[in-house]
Write a structure and sequence with these properties.
mainly alpha
C-alpha cells in the first residue's frame, strides 16, 4: 500500500531482498557517480562501515549521524573523513 502511494507520487521505490544497508549504500554511491549529491542520514553503524568500505578515496558520499549532541556529530564526521581517506 505505501509503496503504491509513493510510486504514484513519483518517488523511486526499491525493495531490498536481503540486507537493506547494502542497497542504501549502493544507491548513494550510484548517485555520486552520476554527479548527484548523496548524504546518508542514519544511526546504524553497519551502514557507516559499509559506506566506508565501498566509498572510493576521492568519493563524495557523506554520512550524517543525527544527534542532539553537537560534539558527537562533529566527532562522527571527522572520524568518517579520516577513516575513508585511509581506504
Amino acid at each position: 500500500m505505501l509503496k503504491l502511494r509513493l510510486v504514484e507520487a513519483g518517488v523511486r521505490v526499491l525493495h531490498a531482498k536481503d540486507d537493506s544497508d547494502v542497497l542504501i549504500v549502493t544507491i548513494a554511491l550510484d548517485m555520486e557517480i552520476s554527479g548527484n549529491p548523496a548524504l546518508l542520514v542514519g544511526t546504524d553503524t553497519d551502514l557507516l562501515v559499509k559506506l566506508i568500505y565501498r566509498n572510493k578515496p576521492n568519493g563524495n558520499v557523506k554520512m550524517l549521524h543525527p544527534s542532539m549532541n553537537k560534539i558527537l556529530d562533529k566527532l562522527y564526521r571527522v572520524m568518517f573523513d579520516k577513516i575513508s581517506s585511509l581506504i
